């Protein structure tokens, strides 16, 4: 069934209309409700005897129209319950995805919920897909509701469970009530419900439904006014939070706008890609503030902006006329919540990847990988050579958690000859439930399975067509999905779930894992043929502990980034801290080092970081590994002997400072310090 469209905010958030305005045309009072007549009309409809004129039936027009949609759509009239998602991880993902809506509903739900105890009524909150994400109210009623799956995870759209307060409110875009026999499915006729849609105050789009449900004896005409009032209260809370967030995004841009000039064009978008501010730059033709700024019109797929692939997501979503710009991600509370698009008055500035030459992209991507160690340079060299050839269509990136495998995937994308306009799509296999894997990879058609999108959905292979698909933690992929992935890689076509039509895809696959896939193959957890298919070329990203003094380069890199972000001077570090950082084993790798720098910027007592400012495990490790021979009084007593030892080691190791430090049993920062102290030049070697 196809959902119709309605005007934005037909029932605005400013006030709750009079009860008569909330009633659909032809609405009946309870005293006029004829259950026998409604039941007979329902039976005649199911028997195909719908030729009787509608206005002669004891059925409201809203209900009759919904019944007719259900009958035409093939809904099972004898259905006893709604479909429900029972996987705990999937349910948590649903609620996380609707966190803004749930937060806005907190106050009205807590107030109304307390008053419903013992009344036989329950209040439910559903998302835009008709899936319940919160229920509150009378405990007995909530318990009874689970018999028909009227609980968190239950899906209550018309196209799966027929006429009901939630699904019919979503369809019509108006507050509705559905009483007893007015439900289309027989198993739900012992309930009464009233639902009111919740609209996004920013663009008027329906984002959820408030529903009051219970057994038929709770029916009151004013139930519909109650849910409409609750919906308006939620919309007001959403409007307040969105206004506050827009102000914070503007403040975040002002704080980070080092290179912005008043004559430049500026467009600020939120995490849904909606324009919230513009200056000196026109919005795309036909757009206005609040509408999504992207290609293809308002009904096209547009992912929320995320930290992973942020620049690529923004760049590839912009209209052609808006691609010559600098993109600055805007962070709030550590999360990317929007972006500033700056259009320099003279266009000689840096642009996002679209329109750049592949070689420039490759240099820029390489610049994101910080380090000089031989192991890292070897991995980067392999990645660059693979990126510049079209012969390798799939490769494997291996490395521990936190080493930066995604940066190498982006390096492959940047170096591809087609990367100027091609997408980069990333999917973390460890974050997808087994039940949703097929849908995420290959997509699905409408109604392919319980909970499927009513409009169908493209999988990541289709979304990455012409570009790069990064499958992170591929070792987490369920064994029964792996043959289908292998088939796509070999045939270069995908079939959406429930669809027999083949869709050609041109995708370069970059798989990554922190597991030893050879051991996974031996244990029977990963298919041998798929392993050989994705590992024709493999890149081993070295752990930070094997990269020598790269940790000092990364320390300086993250230190400058954090200082610029916070608008403060960079931190300075004592020699003891540098020694501790070099000798630490870094089990969390680059991610752990970045988090350390963030922590130090927040909690260090002053701009000079001392050993006591480090986490306890790092400070203890340094204390255990320290050499008492490096104590200051000892150095002063044997300074000349120490100078000769350093010069001799430099000569023996031909100036290789890493080997000199190893020979002398000291860290490279200590070696640098002593060379400076004694005036020793590397030329002594």
How would you characterize the overall build of this protein?
This protein is an alpha/beta fold and 685 residues long. It folds into five domains: 19-238, 2-Layer Sandwich (Beta-Lactamase); 257-343; 358-540, P-loop containing nucleotide triphosphate hydrolases (Rossmann fold, 3-Layer(aba) Sandwich); 545-626, Helicase, Ruva Protein, domain 3; 629-684, no CATH class. It has 26 helices and 20 strands. The strands form six sheets. The chain has a five-stranded antiparallel sheet with strand order 2-1-5-4-3, with helices on both faces. The protein has a five-stranded parallel sheet with strand order 11-14-17-10-18. Helix 20 (575-583) packs antiparallel against helix 26 (668-678) and helix 24 (639-652) packs across helix 25. The termini are far apart. Residues 1-31, 51-55, 295-304, 346-358 and 625-637 have low confidence and may be disordered.
- On the 0-100 scale, what is the average pLDDT? 79
Strand order of the largest sheet: 2-1-5-4-3
Look at the helices and sheets and give the structural class: alpha/beta
CATH architecture of the largest domain: 2-Layer Sandwich
Amount of helix: 40-55%
CATH topology of the largest domain: Beta-Lactamase
- CATH level 1 class label of the largest domain: Alpha Beta
Please tally the β strands and state the result.
20
Number of alpha- plus pi-helical segments: 26
Tally of individual domains:
5
Estimate the global geometry from the Cα principal axes.
elongated
Largest sheet: 5 strands, antiparallel
Strand content: 5-15%
Radius of gyration using CA atoms only: 31 Å
Q: Which residue ranges are poorly predicted, with pLDDT under 50 across at least 5 consecutive positions?
A: 1-31, 51-55, 295-304, 346-358, 625-637
The termini sit apart by: 80 Å
Supply the CATH superfamily name of the largest domain.
Answer: GAF domain
């Amino acid at each position: 069934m196809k959902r119709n469209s309605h005007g934005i905010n037909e029932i605005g958030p400013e006030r709750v209309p009079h009860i008569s305005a909330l009633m659909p045309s032809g609405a009946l009072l309870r005293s006029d409700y004829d259950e026998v007549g409604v039941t007979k009309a329902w039976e005649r409809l199911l028997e195909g005897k719908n030729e009787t004129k509608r206005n002669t039936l004891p059925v409201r027009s809203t209900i009759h129209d919904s019944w007719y949609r259900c009958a035409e759509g093939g809904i099972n009239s004898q259905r006893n319950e709604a479909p429900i998602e029972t996987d705990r991880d999937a349910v948590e993902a649903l609620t996380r995805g609707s966190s803004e809506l749930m937060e806005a509903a907190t106050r009205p739900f807590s107030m109304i919920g307390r008053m419903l105890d013992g009344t036989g009524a329950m209040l439910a909150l559903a998302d835009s897909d008709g899936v319940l994400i919160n229920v509150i109210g009378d405990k007995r009623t909530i318990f009874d509701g689970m018999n028909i799956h009227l609980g968190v995870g239950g899906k209550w759209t018309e196209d799966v469970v027929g006429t009901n307060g939630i699904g019919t409110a979503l369809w019509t875009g108006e507050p509705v009530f559905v009483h007893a026999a007015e439900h289309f499915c027989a198993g739900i006729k012992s309930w009464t419900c009233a639902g009111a849609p919740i609209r996004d105050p920013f663009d008027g789009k329906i984002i959820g439904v408030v529903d009051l449900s219970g057994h038929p004896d709770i029916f009151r005409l004013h139930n519909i006014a109650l849910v409409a009032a609750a919906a308006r209260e939620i919309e007001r809370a959403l409007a307040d939070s969105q206004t506050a967030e827009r102000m914070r995004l503007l403040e975040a841009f002002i704080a980070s706008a080092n290179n912005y000039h008043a004559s430049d064009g500026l467009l600020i978008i939120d995490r849904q890609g909606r324009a919230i501010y513009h200056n000196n730059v026109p919005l795309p033709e036909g757009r206005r503030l609040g509408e999504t700024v992207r290609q293809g019109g308002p009904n096209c797929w547009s992912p929320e902006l995320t930290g992973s692939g942020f620049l690529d997501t923004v760049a590839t979503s912009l209209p052609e006329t808006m691609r010559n710009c600098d993109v600055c991600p805007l962070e709030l509370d550590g999360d990317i919540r929007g972006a500033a698009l700056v259009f320099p008055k003279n266009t000689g500035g840096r642009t996002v990847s679209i329109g750049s030459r592949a070689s420039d992209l490759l240099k820029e991507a390489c610049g994101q990988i910080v380090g000089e160690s031989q192991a890292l340079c070897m991995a980067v060299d392999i990645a660059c050579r693979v990126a510049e050839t079209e012969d390798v269509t799939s490769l494997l990136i291996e490395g521990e958690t936190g080493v930066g495998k995604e940066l190498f995937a982006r390096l492959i994308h940047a170096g591809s000859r087609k990367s100027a306009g091609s997408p980069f799509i990333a999917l973390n296999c460890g974050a997808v439930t087994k039940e949703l894997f097929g849908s995420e990879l290959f997509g699905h058609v409408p109604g392919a399975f319980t909970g499927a999108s009513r409009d169908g959905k493209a999988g990541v292979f289709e979304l990455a067509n012409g570009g790069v698909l990064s499958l992170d933690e591929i070792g987490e992929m369920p064994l029964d999905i792996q043959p289908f992935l292998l088939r796509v890689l070999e045939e270069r076509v995908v079939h959406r779930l429930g669809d027999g039509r083949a869709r050609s895809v041109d995708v370069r696959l970059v798989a990554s894992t922190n597991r030893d896939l050879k051991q996974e193959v031996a244990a029977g957890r990963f298919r041998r043929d798929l392993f050989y298919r994705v590992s024709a070329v493999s890149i081993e990203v070295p752990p930070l502990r094997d990269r020598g003094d790269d940790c000092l380069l990364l320390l300086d890199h993250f230190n400058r980034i954090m200082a610029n972000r916070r608008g403060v001077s960079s931190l300075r570090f004592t020699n003891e801290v540098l020694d501790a950082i070099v000798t630490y084993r870094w089990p969390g790798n680059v991610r752990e080092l970045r988090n350390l720098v963030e922590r130090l910027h927040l909690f260090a007592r002053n701009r000079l970081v001392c050993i006591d400012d480090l986490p306890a495990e790092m400070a203890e490790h340094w204390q255990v590994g320290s050499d008492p021979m490096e104590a200051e009084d000892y150095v002063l007593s044997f300074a000349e002997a120490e100078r000769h030892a350093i010069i001799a080691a430099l000569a023996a190791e031909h100036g290789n400072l890493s080997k000199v430090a190893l020979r002398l049993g000291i860290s490279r920062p200590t070696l640098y310090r002593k060379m400076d102290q004694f005036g020793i030049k590397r030329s002594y070697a």
